[in-house]
Amino acid sequence: MRWFWIDRFVEFESGRSATSIKNVALAEEHLHDHFPGYPVMPNSLIVEGLAQTGGMLAAEYHDFKERVILAKISKMTFHGPALPGDQLTYHAEMDDISADGAVTSVTCHIGDRLQAEGQIFFAHVADQVTGKSLFEPGQMIHMMRLLKLYEVGRKPDGSAIMPPAEMT
Amino acid sequence: MALSEENFAKIQEALVDALGVDDDEVTPEATLVGDLGAESIDFLDIVFRLEKAFGIKIDRGELWPEDILTNVKFVEDGKLNAEGLAELKTRMSFADLSKFEQNPAIQEFGNMLTVQDMANFVDGKMAQA
Predict the structure, then answer these.
(1) What's the pTM value of the predicted model, to 2 decimals?
(2) H helix intervals, A16-74
(3) Comparing C-alpha atoms, which of B55, B60, B49 is closest to residue A100?
(4) Does A109 qualify as catalytic in the annotation?
(5) A22, pLDDT greater than 90
(6) How many domains does chain A have?
(7) Most exposed residue of A68, B2, B31, B117, measured as fewest CB within 10 angstroms of its CB?
(8) CATH number, domain at A88?
């Protein structure tokens, strides 16, 4: 999967909050269409990055056993553009999590400047809906390692988050 | 059963936030699906908000009995059979099902649940708590 819209996690507390960063680079092809001569990181992809940050926070809480999908963007406000050279800091706070889904409050900062804020709601999709696994277990762990989850991830008691035993 | 003004305001707020509707659209008679445009995923969102606003716990299917509406035992030709209706009445004592009973077509179900029904549901949950 190349649909990574975060580069890595910099903070991750299981079930509570996660912070990730995304570096916007002029080499990203889509920026040259959005817009020709005036490259701006599309806000839709910022929402995707925020959703990946919050979604992985929700999925990790259930040891990646649930199929967490972005169900709804309850609200989202953008305060300015994100441009090549900017480093976006995505933060997701867990408002609520249950067996059915999760709600996260999210922000995107560029330095000290608030670029976007909102609320994203995730639901769990039952097995029978998709009919097959979304990821091979090893693939999921590989993705989490790429994103440095196991380097920065902590449980509320301070111990390190480890890959679920059955997925390694 | 009339809900206190304060509690109604909380329900109103939950629906305004979850469905993106205006305060004045959230009247007791308004139907959640037909008038306020709720989709199935919104019910999970509404449940989260009600749980938080009222400090209650709402189990899956309590407010929106999806399992009954999709159970082959209870559905015949797109309508709920007598057994299904009986089950629905037991589970949804907070709702006025009289209109739905006249034509228990599954597709009509969404147009039945009103804000008042939901207020009754919350009242019941608060009484249990």
Answers:
(1) 0.86
(2) 43-61
(3) B60
(4) no
(5) yes
(6) 1
(7) B2
(8) 3.10.129.10
Instruction: Identify all chain B residues contacting A99, using CB atoms and an 8 Å cutoff.
Output: 60
Rounded Cα–Cα distance for residues A110 and A105 (Å): 17
In a domain, A164, yes or no: no
Confidence tier at A96 by pLDDT (50, 70, 90): very high
Range of the domain at A49: 8-159
Instruction: Look at residue A46 and tell me if it is in a domain.
Output: yes
**Which of B45, B47, B60 is nearest residue A74 as measured by Cβ atoms?**
B45
Q: Quote ipTM for the complex.
A: 0.74
DSSP E strand stretches across chain B: 75-76, 79-80
The sign one gets for the Cα dihedral B39, B10, B3, B91 is positive
Mutation choice for A interface testing from B15, B19, B42, B45 by most A CBs within 10 A: B45
Residue type, B126: M
In 3D space, the residue among A144, A60, A71, A125 whose CA is nearest the CA of residue A103 turns out to be A71
Minimum mean pLDDT range among A148-152, A155-159, B39-43: B39-43
Going along chain B from its start, the domains and CATH numbers come out as: 5-128 (1.10.1200.10)
Nearest beta carbon to residue A100 from set B17, B52, B60 = B60
| Per-residue confidence in pLDDT tens, chain B, 129 aa | 456 778 889 999 999 999 999 999 999 999 999 999 998 889 889 999 999 999 999 987 888 888 888 889 999 999 999 999 999 999 988 888 888 889 899 888 878 889 999 998 998 888 887
Which H helix or E strand runs over B83?
helix B82-91
Q: What is the pLDDT of residue B126?
A: 86
Distance from CA of A74 to the nearest CA of B (A): 6
Query: Contact at 8 Å (CB) between B50 and B11?
Result: yes
If you ran DSSP here, which 8-state letter would residue A134 be given?
S
Encoded tokens for B30: 């308004």
